[in-house]
Design a protein that fits this description.
The protein is of the alpha/beta class. Helix content is about 40%, strand content about 10%. A hairpin with a 4-residue loop joins strand 10 and strand 11. Helix 2 packs across helix 3. Belongs to the ZC3H12 family.
Amino acid sequence: VHQSKLDFFCKLGYSKQDICKVLESLGQEALEDDVLKELIRMGSKPQALESQVQPAPLKLVARGSGSIPDMPPWLGEDGSDSSSHLRPIVIDGSNVAMSHGNKEVFSCWGIRLAVDWFRQRGHTYIKVFVPSWRKEPPRQDSPIADQHILEELEKQSILVYTPSRKVKGKRVVCYDDRYIVKVAYEKDGVIVSNDHYRDLQNENPEWKWFIEQRLLMYSFVSNRFMPPDDPLGRHGPTLNNFLSKKPVLPEPKWQPCPYGKKCTYGNKCKFYHPERPHQAQLSVADELRAKIKVSLSLGTEEEKSP
């Protein structure tokens, strides 16, 4: 009997020493329930439970050498890349550079400022179009500043040169605006320029709608690239919604009633009353119709009842 009880409680995970102490105090003929109660009273725990209760030892890792890589700020909790929700960006390089150079100098630094602004937002598809003759050394009639930036952006596959050539000493330049609008239209992206492209709007009605809805204008304030917070006007989308494929709708804001508790409009008042949290927003006519329906339903129930 002693051995059978010892084997039974050992299978439950209790130690032999605790089991023997309990059997000596209660006797060999003690019931299994009494032995179990005594083991619990003594504070003895099965080994399986003790291993579950004890937390796993913490592993010390040197700072900066963790096995789990740091999650970039543009990644969400589910690990999805938010750049997939951002629209492609197509920049009119000539327009941006001349705007930064006060329409006197082709300032390549302005292009860098615009590219860095969209990079910091998380945009991955950024293309800048510049005529290829800007590779040539600067002249007095066409000065260029910080020309090395163009080479750096070209190596990063951001800057694209539109073709141009010389025929009998004259430069033949392709229309780079057509490249800009066409690529932005095909990619369903955003055009960054202060140009309105009126000639291209007259060519294609689809391009006309696209340019009107996807043109992002900008300003340079103390070497800072600043697009407007309302690209399509005061009543249009915000800049975040304008640059994202999945715009976030703002929550409706209730305007408080200017009369407050002195308001005599009752349910007709279209403003928000904090002192009436449970009041139904119904007109007087709708409220009367609802009361008539309730009274009619009660009358039919009384007629049906014996």
